[in-house]
From TrEMBL:
The keyword Iron does not apply. It comes from the Bacteria. The chain crosses the membrane at residues 331-350, 357-377, 383-408, 428-448, 460-482, 516-537, 846-863, 870-890, 902-923, 950-967, 979-1008. One of its GO terms (molecular function) is xenobiotic transmembrane transporter activity. One of its GO terms (cellular component) is plasma membrane. It holds the Pfam family ACR_tran. This is AcrB/AcrD/AcrF family protein. The lineage of its organism: Bacteria, Pseudomonadati, Pseudomonadota, Gammaproteobacteria, Alteromonadales. Signal peptide: none annotated. The keyword Ribonucleoprotein does not apply. Keywords: Membrane, Transmembrane, Transmembrane helix.
Length: 1027
């Protein structure tokens, strides 16, 4: 096939790739961050009507004991409250979670003495991202609506419509649980009149269900047996309980029947209207932007049609899609701007639009190949992958620049176009392939990292590696074809070589000519670079903390309040203050606001009409809205963009263990006060109760009296349960569902009324409750925390705004050590979870990665250069680039907060690959000069003369490609600003100093011609022996 035909085919295929890539880009999923899988299972246990202590003793302790045998289990953490518990199981990152999930289900079924009336724990596999909330919503009305109306609309209208949205896995309705129960509420006085015991009523109500028997044969036919025991709620009122003196006592005479929510509802409001709050959990690998867009469309249709008859509306209470789209648009814009800046730089060097056009033809082709690869690999377009593309602009242009610059070097020597293209490509193909391989292999350790935070960089590694592989193919195949098409001797004017080149070469080779300058640079250069890097290094952090345009306020209660009290004392008062303030001219403007309250906290959120108004909002909330709320502590915080994908990524959990719960609470209270005083700007709160704030009525049975009456303590407890929260009787099929059935007494107006309640005892008569038990008021914790089977007290610490986790954690540890020494209880010990645990895990993994990367690079240099000496020479160029990266981070940190977070750290790994590429070009040319018989100085001078232009062009494109990402001031840019700063600073420092440093290094006797030839001979003999 003729060369022209081959060129045409290559160019047509390249254009086809661009078209396919452009189309596939519109079909890729959009997200803020890549999916992050955490190896964790959560077991939710529910036992309504039971206190935390009973649930702990009866359910959670045996459950934890059974689960301890699980393979790979690292930690068990259980939070036990009244009526429910959540048990979290933590596993290593390399475990098979599907297998572990099945093993957990098997172990649950083997827990000994599990109560028959308690359902097995519900297991949620959070390794697939189930702990992340996709969005939250409010169903609200300007009119007063009953709970039954909200439940009816949710179950009958909203839930069926949202079930059709592909990206939603489940609706989380724990705040306003729509699960219902049937309450048979009796009047104790009426029961006393009929001398009815709760046992008699319960006996009549149990097993109200249809039952079937075997078959009965009559004659030649078989008949199935069916017993009709099921009653409707209306029929239930006529249920016969007993007969007293010839009078048939029916249920309606002694009790009322009602269907009520199973759990107490929290208070929620939206724009001041009472609302029903729920959240939506995503499916694995969800397209967040597309799913939220579909949810909005569903809500719009519901508001226009199905909800109108109920005078209700539904709206997203938290819409992060705007912030996510804004963050993505910023990277898109910076990507385009970086391309234009790189184009301007190349025009400065080439002064030839055809050359620039050929080079930049590589950009759409390579990006198209990357997008096709992302589609095949099921990757998403997110901030990390797009930042990888922006970084890839400089990388993929490297190979194109080297090829085209070498072709033009031959054209300046009046060589024919075809021959210049062939020679130009052939001469640099080996260096391009080896340098590209070194850059790709550097990402292998990144892919091997297993921590949750490290999963962010799989997308980055894939994007850049794909771009590098594509750049080699495009530079060596596509661009030569394009050059043959566009370049011809009679159509192109070749610019003469710049007359200043010789002056620049002399400047860069000055250290090679001057002994004192050479040894001064070598003696002080590396130690100085390492010292400056250590001095300028910012504090360690887990992840950046980009803000978004919303304001959050937390109102913590000093003592638990009932749901009704939280609504009346806090929520209603705050709402009235907000509405009154909105009439004033100086009040900050906001589009949407909402509120949630439970027994321990109220949370408010606002979406300001204008960006950058957080300080104004904080002052307004603190001074006008949240002030003088009795028994509360309040915090005002900006919304965090990464909370959408990584909730609690800046929270440190501090655990106190080793002693009894009262002693742990006492130590925790003192430590809480100590840390709040030591860090007034930090948010230090209790994560488990430090005070016993829940009022509790303790009944102590009169055992002697019970024996005389023929009762057991367990039977008395059953009667007490029936008089209070309700005695569980099983399930009754009603309203299309099997609902739990409870027998409960009317709420007593006081303790005395309850204790004077008369209880019917068969064969004895009516006996007042106070004769059967003594009552005492006490306080108990609202929740119990267990970590690894031990009673635990926990504090939650969030650093001040802008403070790095690493430095702050060290300060916290010092304060804790001082507190422990002063407190004097040697039994108590401390542990850390959350960000503290994540940071230490990542740092260890990162240091291992750094060591492996350097070893890999050294081996690759030896394989490329066939010389350990030259390989080490290349490696010694790295500290200068690291110094540049650290100095740039220090500069940005002095202007705006910039910590050394995990995304920034990965920037240093990428920087190693970039700097190595330039060093390889220089050293390989030096090696070629030595092999061709040049002296050491002549080889250095020729290498700098030939490679200076491509090194500066590739360095410049890398810098300009990342510069917009570094300088972007918008919210959300903090995610990738540190990574971009490392690349810009490191490559700038490398451009300024690396040529002079390498000139000095290669001029020492260690790299002299005789020494180098001797090593080549040794390597050759070793290879021959192996062969």
């Amino acid at each position: 096939m003729k060369l022209k035909q081959l060129n045409a085919i290559v160019l047509v295929l390249a254009l086809a790739c661009i078209i396919v890539g452009a189309y596939q880009a519109t079909t890729l999923k959009n997200a803020l961050l890549p999916p992050i899988k955490k190896p964790m299972l959560v077991l939710y246990t529910s036992w309504q009507g039971k206190g935390a202590e009973e649930i702990e003793q009866t359910l959670i302790a045996p459950l934890e004991q059974q689960l301890k045998t699980l393979d790979g289990l690292m930690r068990i953490k259980s939070s036990v409250g009244a009526g429910n518990a959540a048990t979290k199981l933590y596993f290593p990152h390399d475990i098979d979670m599907d297998k572990t999930y099945l093993e957990v289900l098997s172990q649950i079924n083997q827990v000994p003495n599990w109560p028959a009336q308690v359902a097995p724990p519900r297991v949620v596999n959070q390794s697939s991202g189930a702990n992340i909330t996709l969005a939250s919503a409010m169903l609200f009305s300007s009119e007063e609506k009953s709970k039954d109306e909200y439940i009816k609309v949710m179950k009958g209208i909203v839930e069926p419509q949202l079930a059709k949205v592909a990206g939603i896995s489940r609706l989380e309705k724990a705040f306003n649980n729509t699960e219902q129960r049937i309450d048979i509420t009796f009047d104790p006085d009426t029961l006393a009149q009929y001398e009815l015991s709760t046992d008699e009523v319960a006996y009549a109500l149990r097993n109200l269900k249809d039952q079937s028997g075997n078959q009965l044969t009559i004659g030649s036919r078989n008949y199935n047996l069916h017993f009709k025991g099921q009653l409707t709620l209306n029929e239930l009122q006529d249920l016969i309980i007993t007969v007293r003196n010839g009078h048939v006592v029916r249920l309606a005479e002694i009790a009322t029947i009602s269907v009520t929510p199973r759990d107490k509802w929290g208070y929620a409001s939206f724009k001041g209207d009472r609302a029903y709050y729920f959240s939506m959990d995503p499916t694995a690998n969800v397209d967040a932007m597309a799913t939220i867009s579909e949810i909005k469309q569903v809500f719009k249709n519901l508001n226009e049609h199905a909800l109108k008859p109920y005078n209700m509306q539904i709206s997203l209470s938290r819409d992060d899609s705007k912030s996510i789209q804004q963050a993505l648009d910023q990277v898109y814009g910076n990507l385009v701007l970086g391309i234009f800046l790189a184009c301007a730089l190349l025009f400065f060097f080439f002064r030839n639009m055809k050359a620039i056009s050929i080079i930049f033809f590589a950009v759409p082709v390579c990006l198209a190949l990357v997008i096709i690869g992302m589609k095949l690999g099921n990757y998403s377009l997110n901030v990390i992958s797009l930042a990888g593309m922006a970084l890839s602009i400089g990388l993929l242009l490297d190979a194109a620049i080297i090829v085209i610059d070498n072709i033009f070097r031959h054209l300046r020597q009046n060589i024919a176009v075809g021959e210049a293209i062939n020679k130009g490509v052939k001469e640099v193909s080996g260096a391009i392939i080896s340098s590209t391989l070194s850059s790709i292999i550097i990402f292998i350790p990144i892919i091997m990292m297993k921590s949750s935070e490290a999963q962010l960089f799989i997308d980055l590694a894939f994007t850049i590696s794909s771009a590098l592989m594509a750049s080699v193919v495009v530079a060596l195949v596509v661009l030569p074809a394009a050059a043959r098409k566009l370049l011809s001797k009679d159509k192109i004017v070749i610019e003469e070589e710049n007359t200043q080149d010789s002056k620049w070469v002399n400047r860069f080779t000055a250290p090679a000519r001057s002994s004192w300058l050479k040894y001064a640079l070598l003696a002080f250069g590396l130690p100085f670079a390492l010292a400056i890097s250590y001095w300028a290094a910012p504090s360690f952090d887990v992840l950046p903390s980009p803000n978004q345009n919303n304001v959050n306020a937390m109102i913590l209660f000093n003592e638990p309040l009932s749901h009704e009290a939280a609504e009346q004392r806090i929520a209603k008062r705050v709402y009235s203050r907000i509405e009154a303030a909105r009439q004033l001219p100086n009040t900050p403007k906001f589009e949407v606001y909402g509120m949630f309250c439970n027994t321990g906290v109220c949370q408010l959120y606002f979406y300001p009409e204008e960006e950058g108004k957080f300080n104004e909002f904080r002052a307004w909330l603190k001074e006008d809205i949240l002030t003088d709320l009795p028994g509360t502590v309040s915090y005002v915080m900006p919304g965090k963009l990464l909370n959408f994908a990584l909730p609690d990524n800046r929270v440190i959990e501090l655990h106190l263990k080793g002693d009894t719960l009262p002693e742990l609470q006492k130590a925790g209270r003192g430590l809480l006060t100590h840390l709040q005083e030591a860090f007034p700007d930090a948010k230090v709160t209790e994560d488990s109760p430090l005070y016993n704030r829940v009022s509790r009525i303790e009944f102590s049975p009169n055992r002697e009296q019970l024996v005389h009456l023929g009762l057991t303590p367990a039977k008395l407890n059953e009667k007490l349960v029936a008089l209070t929260d309700g005695l569980y009787l099983g399930h009754l099929y009603a309203q299309g569902n099997a609902l739990p059935l409870y027998l409960k007494g009317q709420a007593a107006s006081s303790i005395d009324t309850l204790m004077n309640t008369e209880i019917a005892i068969p064969g004895i008569g009516l006996v007042p409750l106070h004769q059967l038990a003594e009552v005492e008021m006490s306080l108990a914790p609202s929740e119990l925390l267990r970590v690894d089977g031990e009673a635990t007290v926990a504090l939650e610490i969030e650093p001040p705004e802008g403070a790095a986790i690493g430095e702050f954690l060290e300060q916290v540890k010092l304060e804790i050590a001082a507190y422990i020494e002063a407190y004097g209880n040697e039994q108590i010990y401390f542990g850390y979870m959350g960000s503290a645990d994540n940071l230490s895990e990542f740092l260890q993994e990162f240091l291992n990665l750094l060591a492996v990367s350097v070893v890999i690079l050294t081996v690759l240099m030896w394989m490329t250069l066939k010389s350990w000496r030259l390989a080490f020479a290349v490696i010694l160029s790295l500290p200068l680039a690291v110094m540049g990266g650290m100095l740039n981070l220090y500069l940005i940190d002095s202007i705006d907060s910039q910590n050394l977070d995990v995304i920034t750290m990965i920037g240093f790994i990428i920087l190693l690959g970039l700097v190595i590429n330039n060093a390889i070009l220089l050293v390989s040319q030096f090696q070629t000069g030595i092999s061709n018989g040049l002296s050491q100085f002549e080889a250095i001078k020729l290498a700098i003369k030939i490679r200076r232009r491509p090194i500066y062009m590739s360095t410049g494109t890398s810098i300009l490609g990342m510069l917009p990402l570094m300088l972007n001031p918008a919210d959300g840019a903090e995610i990738y600003r540190g990574l971009a700063a490392v690349i810009v600073g490191g490559m700038s420092m490398s451009a300024l100093l690396s040529l002079s440093f390498m000139s000095a290094l290669l001029s020492i006797g260690y790299f002299a011609k005789t020494s180098y030839e001797e090593e080549l001979n040794i390597n050759s003999s070793e290879i021959n022996q192996v062969t």
